[in-house]
Write a structure and sequence with these properties.
Number of strands of chain B: 2
Shape of chain B: globular
Distance between the termini of chain B: 43 Å
Shape of chain A: globular
Number of domains of chain B: 1
Structural class of chain A: mainly alpha
Number of helices of chain A: 15
Distance between the termini of chain A: 10 Å
Structural class of chain B: mainly alpha
Strand content of chain A: under 5%
Number of helices of chain B: 12
Oligomer: heterotrimer
Strand content of chain B: under 5%
Chain lengths: 354, 305, 273
């Protein structure tokens, strides 16, 4: 039996409840199965973004306001390399789209990290604000590369190979959902392994007190760099997925507000907690879909966009003020699995075990 | 193709606006000890305060149609209204959000992002997303300047630059020759030492927000006068403000002036770079900022690490 | 001219350092116009316990920061063992065998006590990403050894009952012990302690002194300690270095220093002409 804390049990209960509710809605025909899977796929995408930011902010305390930009870099790399309508006219296999996304992201992440990671934390925040702006400007203005505001259509699907024709509710959205579940699982397993290790422990020390980490002989610059690059690549992966989900990409898909949705998800989920990050990603979709429902509630002359902006802003302030540890704050000791004799012997608390 | 001088003239106008924003951002950075990501949106608040207040004034106050340097008196009053509105908003934010939080600089930074979104959302909710212009005649370039040096400068430009000079000089006098100014400089240099030597920090912090917000509002109103007033206007220049502050050296008011001048100028001179359009102004500011971080992170006038 | 006198005095009183593990030579550092460390030269004997004292603002913390690489000196040299570490980043100085602690240890948020201990060991394979994937068994072996060692040290310091407590929930004194234990697990040749008993109750302070002596005797570990508690440092140290206004005032045995009138003057704030 998996041992869970009380909060985890509550969260699990809420999630199961939500699943039953959604299944009920589909069963009664209120919600189409295809749309449900679309929402879940989108949720998976946000989970990826949240996990990526959690590696940067949650593990080590790096402030990245370029989440939407790294997402966009990933998505545009795919679009430009794979789409027949891309000005580059390469039309390569999606695998090259993925590779291009990773390479471009790593290069840009390094370029931004090298000058800033030696300095106080807020310089990275300011520099990533700038990066987001520059990426937006390039996407909008360099028409020879990105087609500007016209966007890039014709991005290929990557789910045709799935042998699922026999499934009664098989649809593109269902397949995309499965794809993102696979991606999330893969990314989750990778980050959990590197997190529950001496590497993760050094990052956690840096987050608490970087000078202490240095005084204990840790190369903090190097570790921060690694975390920043890994987090950014995960964000780019979300973009890669989105490109293949939406099949069209325009400058509007890089809306900077997405960066702040992801921030809320990480902080609400519990900075530094892998499972919290997943919950946070789900929370975003709930907020976005929930505020969509606002249309029915608010007077007709109130537009939802600004209201959402206001609420997101207020929520950030409130979370920082009143529950800065989030729903599922990190509770596990970062000790390499299987090496801890106490874990198998001790019985109290139940916090330190899997 | 515009003449080089024309770009420089435009640069001086834009620099004035950036200087007004950068001073407040730098003060909050030094005295409040956090990077205030809501400072750009505070400019927006000031600009909206001015444009809404201004249109209100023209209706109720007689004599506002009188012109000074070709700009109606109502605009000057509107700027004052904007400064008051931004100051009230900034002080309320400080009391409600930042002060009770007792948080690290990083938490304050993240909270300030929330504040920025909330300002913008509230403005957009109330006044919509469309652009507005100040109700000030579009007077063309001043003929005599155009004829003598071939540069088109409007009366608006003259007003923006000269009012900025007045505001910056007043601030200089305040900082150098008043007790409050000395306290502010001491706190900006070393907050702990200032507190130990008996300076009441809360007084200094209040003064800092008032000055920062008032100057930001003036900058926002001038930006609106030069171009348009719209809800994203302040956030759109935030990067440029940060670049100016970092170039000048965080915490140095005079650094903010020098940094604002240099970055504002670079922003407007961008089209002179071959194959780069004016829209890349913020990108140029960004590249200068990153270069400064690489070679001299304390900025040209700062000695902080 | 006072410079010349200082050097002479030092030369007279330092003949006993014949195997220095730490040598500081002509170290200078100023902030703005303020000179914090002015031409400081100090040698610490291998295997000794050396104390560093001086009135507030004498430059003790600055000196520690300069030695451990947190500040870069304007002039001068720092040698650890035989290698010149001047200007190296802190983590590389640790690799040369010099570890330091801080005056006010930050509580490590979200960490248990033994987790905090596990940050101490050097050259852990699991701190790099490659071995995590390519040789997980080496990571696991090192982790097991480090866990055992951490447990052992916590036992030695009589705080093993705290091992799985949250590091944010232990007392200030316990935190000082944990810090010392964590520095030891890094296996330094020389350990710089910045006010190890500041804010610690007298009983625990005596205990700490005992641990320091034990580590010094049984492992030959060298200590260089800044401490305001004069009795503590005088009792513990083999030699004392006195700093005043950024300069070395004198160096000598605790007895000699105690009776030195210049030291008394410096502490009384007079300083003399």
């Amino acid at each position: 039996m998996i041992d869970l804390t009380r909060t985890e049990r509550t969260v699990l209960g809420v999630l199961i409840g939500a699943c039953i509710l959604l299944a009920g809605l589909v069963g009664t025909g209120v919600l189409s199965a295809s749309y449900l899977f679309y929402l879940l796929a989108l949720g998976g995408m946000y989970v990826l973004l949240t996990v990526g930011l959690n590696v940067q902010w949650g593990y080590v305390g790096l402030i990245n306001f370029s989440v939407a930009a790294f997402f966009g870099i990933g998505a545009y790399s795919v679009a430009l390399v794979t789409s027949p309508r891309s000005p580059l006219e390469l039309e390569l296999h999606p695998i090259f789209g993925l590779l291009a996304a990773i390479v471009v992201t790593v290069v840009i992440a390094l370029l931004i990290a090298i000058p800033t990671l030696r300095l106080r934390e807020d310089y990275l925040a300011i520099a990533t604000l700038g990066l987001a702006e520059v990426v937006r400007l390039i996407v909008l203005n360099e028409q020879w590369l990105t087609r500007g505001s016209a966007g890039v259509p014709g991005i290929p699907r990557v789910t045709e190979w799935m042998p699922l024709a026999w499934v009664p509710f098989d649809s593109a959205n269902f397949r995309n959902f499965l794809l993102v579940v696979g991606l999330v699982a893969l990314v989750f397993l990778i980050v959990r392994r590197i997190h529950r290790s001496p590497w993760g422990r050094v990052l956690r020390t840096i987050r608490a007190d970087e000078d202490l980490a240095k005084a204990l002989g840790k190369n903090t610059y190097r570790r921060k760099m690694e975390a920043f690059v890994i987090g950014s690549v995960i964000m780019a992966l979300a973009g890669v997925f989105y490109a293949h989900l939406n099949l069209f990409l325009g400058p509007g898909d890089l809306d900077p507000i997405n960066t702040f949705y992801v921030w809320i998800a990480v902080i609400v989920g519990g900075s530094g907690s892998d499972r919290g990050a997943i919950i946070g990603g789900v929370v975003i979709v709930a907020i976005l879909e929930g505020t969509r429902g606002l249309v029915a509630v608010v007077p007709a002359d109130v537009s939802v966009g600004p209201l959402r902006l206001l609420l997101v802003g207020a929520l950030i302030v409130l979370v920082v003020r009143f529950r800065s540890q989030g729903i599922l704050p990190p509770q596990r000791e970062l000790i390499w699995p299987g090496t801890d004799r106490r874990a198998s012997a001790s019985t109290d608390g139940g916090e330190d075990r899997e | 193709m515009l003449s080089m001088l024309q770009y420089v003239a435009n640069g001086i106008v834009f620099s004035s606006i950036i200087i007004l924003g950068a001073i407040g951002l730098s003060l909050v950075y030094a005295i409040g000890n956090f990077a205030n990501f809501a400072h750009g949106d505070l400019m927006t608040v000031g600009a909206f305060g001015a444009i809404i207040g201004g249109s209100f004034l023209t209706g109720y106050v007689p004599g506002t149609e009188v012109s000074i340097v070709g700009i109606p008196l109502s605009f000057y009053l509107a700027v004052l209204v904007g400064m008051v509105v931004a100051t009230v908003v900034a002080l309320a934010t400080e009391r409600l959000v930042y002060r009770p939080m007792d948080a690290t600089p990083i938490q304050l930074l993240i909270a300030s992002i929330g504040v920025a979104l909330a300002y913008r959302g509230a403005i957009q909710l109330r006044y919509g997303a469309e652009s507005r212009t100040f109700d000030v005649g579009r007077g063309g370039p001043i003929p005599i300047i155009r004829e003598t040096i071939g540069v088109s400068v409007t009366q608006r430009h003259l007003v923006i630059v000269s009012l900025t000079v007045v505001l910056v000089v007043s601030l200089h006098v305040l900082l150098q020759y008043t007790t409050l100014g000395r306290k502010m400089r001491a706190t900006a240099d070393n907050p702990t030492l200032a507190r130990v030597s008996g300076i009441r920090t809360s007084e200094v912090i209040t003064a800092m927000w008032i000055i920062g917000a008032a100057l930001a509002a003036a900058g926002g109103a001038f930006l609106g006068l030069d171009t348009l007033v719209y809800p994203d206007m302040g956030f759109d220049v935030l990067l440029v403000l940060f670049a100016a502050v970092i170039l000048g050296g965080i915490g140095s008011v005079y650094g903010a002036v020098a940094g604002g001048l240099a970055i504002g100028m670079a922003h407007e001179l961008t089209p002179l770079i071959p194959r780069v359009g004016a829209e890349y102004g913020p990108a140029v500011a960004f590249i200068i900022m990153v270069a400064i971080l690489l070679v001299r992170p304390s900025g040209i006038m700062g000695d902080r690490q | 001219m006072s410079e010349a006198v200082d050097h002479e005095v030092e030369a007279e009183e330092s003949p006993d350092v014949d195997d220095p593990i730490l040598e500081v030579d002509g170290l200078k550092k100023s902030f703005g116009g303020l000179v914090a460390t002015d031409d400081v030269s100090i040698a610490v004997e291998r295997g000794s316990i050396t104390g560093l004292i001086g009135p507030n603002g004498a430059g003790k913390s600055t000196l520690f920061n300069l030695i451990s690489g947190f500040y870069e000196p304007d002039a001068g040299q720092v040698l650890v063992g035989d290698s010149d570490v001047t200007g190296l980043p802190p983590h590389e100085i640790v690799q040369r065998g010099l570890v330091r602690t801080f005056q006010t240890p930050k509580k490590l948020e979200g960490m248990s006590v033994r987790e905090a201990m596990l940050v101490g060991p050097q050259a852990q394979p699991g701190e790099s990403l490659v071995p995590i994937w390519l040789s997980p068994s080496s990571v696991a072996d090192a982790e097991r050894a480090n866990l055992d060692r951490a447990e052992e040290l916590l036992q030695l310091f009589e705080i093993d009952h705290l091992a799985t407590e949250r590091a944010t929930e232990v007392s200030g004194g316990q935190l000082k012990l944990i810090e010392l234990a964590r520095a030891i697990i890094a296996e330094p040749d020389i350990l710089l302690l910045d006010e190890p008993v500041a804010g610690v109750n007298p009983t625990l302070a005596r205990k700490l002194a005992g641990f320091i002596e034990e580590l010094n005797e049984s492992y030959g570990l060298t200590f260089f300690i800044v401490e305001h508690d004069i009795n503590f440092i005088m009792r513990l140290s083999d030699r004392i270095v006195v700093l005043d206004r950024g300069r070395v005032l004198t160096t000598g045995s605790p007895q000699a220093v105690k009776s030195d009138s210049r030291v008394i003057d410096a502490y009384l704030g007079g300083g003399g002409p």
